[in-house]
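Design review, sub-item: ligand-bound model
Attendees: FS, YL, KQ
YL presented the inputs for the adenosine monophosphate complex:
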Amino acid sequence: MSEPIIGIDLGTTNSEVAVVRDGKPHVFEEGGDPILPSFVGLAEDGKLLVGHAARNQWVVAPERTVKSIKRKMGQDVKVKLGDQEYRPQEISAMILRALKERASAQLGQAVKKAVITVPADFNDDQRNATREAGELAGLEVVRILNEPTAASLTYDPKSSELQRILVYDLGGGTFDVSIVQAQEGVIEVLSSHGDTQLGGDDFDELLFKHVVLQFQTQHGIDLGANVYARARLLRAVEAAKRQLSFHAFIRLEEEFIAEKDGQALHLQMEITRLEYEELIQPLLTRTMDCVQRALEDAKLLPAALDKVVLVGGSTRTPLVSRLLEERLGQAAHQEVNPDLCVAMGAGIQAALIEGQDVGAVLVDITPHSLGIRCLDYMHGIDFPFRFAPIIRRNTALPGSRSEMFSTVHDNQKEVEIEVYQGENDDVRFNHRIGNFRITGLANVAAGNQLVVQCDLNLDGILKVSAKEKATGLKKDVTIENALAHFEGSEIAGARERLDRLWDQSTTAEEGDFDEIDDEEEMDDEQPYPNEFASEVPVLVPGPREGQRETVQARALLEKAERLLEKVAPEDKIELERMLNAVRHAVTDRQWENVTKACNELSDILFYLEDA
Ligand code: AMP
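KQ shared the predicted structure:
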């Protein structure tokens, strides 16, 4: 083997090293972990620590530990480590050296050359300092590569057509967005914007404050005031935050977190994804403004982008892809592990310099979205065929995701879970792959919450479960072969069925229902094929903004509509007016007005039912 070149992502919080083997990028692991925390420290006995060991001692021995040295690269400063002072490139050199040795040990040969990545907005001083750090670590830096360029290489290393790719990189402490243009191996950064003080650490802090406030309200104790409770809680909320990327809610439990009047206090709290998203939304909106500026600087409209690529651990937060899709009109790619994407790209660049033939990084993904049918009444009319995706298309496998749903009726005892595969918002265009019914739900008002979870493994076996949140009552189904491709004939069949329905509804509107020929005629009472019988008890998506109000409104409207035919004419006019007030408030998403109108309607119903 010729002299190997390694690719290094030298990050602010984490670093990794990769090469290409047999045409595929490979990130070197140590103890099963590909990540080397970018921390350098001195142990009590003066021994040099790099990576996890240094990070672990940072809380207890900050004077002997250096973190985030990348922020100081290119500056004429020194940092203290024990009783010595070092230039930033010397500290970075220690991280690079650890990575170089990791690669040498696993390749079984000395490594002398590297490609190292840097943020697109690093200036000459910062780039030179990075190069110097490499040399201090005994590496010839054959290329300094922009991080967004590296990320785009993993998706398309040798595109012959012109491609414009937006790379959105949200890590632990920094954010940047770049637009790169690639053609025939030449990649240039058209624009780049960012915020060097924004990332997952800020999300942790917001969630931390949220929990502290709730605990204080409950127990009158400030968990932030105690250094140990604070450290424990920060670790717990970071783990909770990661879980919320995949699950609709989590339970935060920390035993003996505080003490009051000689009694131990435990932390037990439930956090929903919705609550968490509300906390971080303002920060993510800031990142979206940067996206807009990057587009303006590159003089591009969103439609001119060929691809949107996600990099950095924090992009696993589903709200990130949702906001990006809303803003850019296309789904973002995150199939390549967002923590390792830049390192893999550096490895690919190294291989290209070596003259190796490299293809795009291939990962196992689900080619279709998987989800369930639910009722959508958020836009004022009931639509019982809404497809609610749970595992979205292009999710890396194995994958596990859950979403929250709610019952539609008061005392709804059962729910039919119909599982679909496909991309259409309307399940009738998708492919039904299974169903089951959960019965024996609690006797409670509409809005009873159920968590529906999908677990999909590499063999395409899908397990779907529904769990009543309040009681833990659970039912599930296993579907073999959930990744099977949609048959062309099934799509055609679904489309035909829809076309028929559509034709029928337009003809009906025109008033010549009679002309539909016998074979095709459908029962006026039952506008949908049998398999979609509307009595099937379904769920609504949520909870989400306005859901509580909408569920209440819906239950009241049903009750009022039943009474409408029975009441005296003068009451009927008044009742209709109130019904319309509720409907309009729901359609306009004026939640306060919904509550007000519902209260009025509820009062009159009370009076009419009694009459
Ligand atoms: P990076 O700097 O790219 O290594 O990203 C690290 C950040 O990603 C940290 O703030 C992590 O808490 C965050 N992170 C890692 N995994 C997840 C996840 N599943 N959901 C949300 N944030 C995550």
